[in-house]
Structure formats: structure tokens, C-alpha cells
Amino acid sequence: MPGKRIYLLLVASIVTLFVIAACTEQVIPTQEPVEFHPTAAAEVDRPDSSGDEVKPATGDSNSSDGDADAGKNLFVSCSACHNTDDSTAVGPGLGGIYARAGDRTALDADAYLEQSIREPGAFVVDGFSPLMPSFNYLSEPDVSNLIAYLKTLD
Q1: Which of 69, 70, 117, 154 lies at a CB distance of 3.0 to 4.6 Å from 145, suitable for a disulfide?
Q2: What φ, ψ does residue 99 adopt, rounded to 5°?
Q3: If we measure between CA atoms, which residue out of 138, 137, 152 comes closest to residue 67?
């Protein structure tokens, strides 16, 4: 009988530890806006999920011709991680991103945003992990539309 009691006590202890571990949650501060300071990420060989070659941002994307309303519809899939103001979600808030983007790298704002969409690991905002997936499968007009929508966010 003592062996059975020890076994039951051990099982109960392990179950209790799992319950305690499952019930604790990590507190992520979201009240304070994060400063936008992208830094070049280290080169990482990541397989492209679409099988297409990564398209480099050239700065000649004609995104100024994009349709902001169509871009807003595309942004729905982004809104799970990005807010349209400056508040933090999983990723940084995108309010005013277009105005800041042109000042962060040698790329112009359109090229910076295109590269951030197609190769999100190229520039990572301080305080964030490179979690954003690549959206290489988006067509040029879709990227132009997204950029046109991002221009409207104040």
C-alpha cells in the first residue's frame, strides 16, 4: 500500500504542476507605444512557402497608384497582429507608418513598405521578434493597394 500512495502522490503532484503552468499567463505590456527603430536583421535562409523567388524591393513599385479601399480589404488579415493606430498588438502599431518609413532606411517609404511586406525579416522594429510571415504570394497590385492603405493611417 505505501508504494501505491507514493505513486498517487507523485501523479497528483505532476498534474498540479501542469495545471499551475497552464494557468499562468505572460503579461505583455501594450499601453506604452513602441518607438519605431528598424534594424537590419541577420541573413536567414528561410524557405519561401509559396515556392516563388523573393522579389526585391526596387522603389519603382508604382504603389502611389494603389487603391486604398482594396488595400483596406487586404489588411484584414494583417489586423490580427497590427493595429491601425500606434498601439501595440503582436506587432507594432501602423499608425503613421508611411511618414516614418521614408526616414528609417536608404529606401524610400514605398520600397521600405514593400520590402517589409515581402521580406519582413529585413527590418525588425526594436523590441519585437521577427514573427511576421512573408507575403511573397501577393501580386504587385495587391502590394501597391496595401501601401496605398498604409498611407492613409495617421
Answers
A1: 70
A2: -65, -35
A3: 152
- Residues in the chain with pLDDT values less than 70: 1, 22-64
What does the block give as the cell for 28?
A: 505583455
How many structural domains comprise the chain?
1
Give residue for cell 500512495.
Answer: 5
Tell me the C-alpha distance between 66 and 63, whole Å. 5
- Provide DSSP, 52-106: SPPPPP-S---GGG--HHHHHHHHTTTTTT--SSS--SSS---TTHHHHHTTTSS
Residue at 68 is within a domain: yes
DSSP codes joined into one string, 116-133 = HHH-TTSEEETT--S-PP
Q: Which domain holds residue 89?
A: 36-44+53-151
Please give the grid coordinates belonging to residue 125: 522594429
Give Cα 25 distance to the centre of its chain: 21
pTM over the 0.70 mark: no
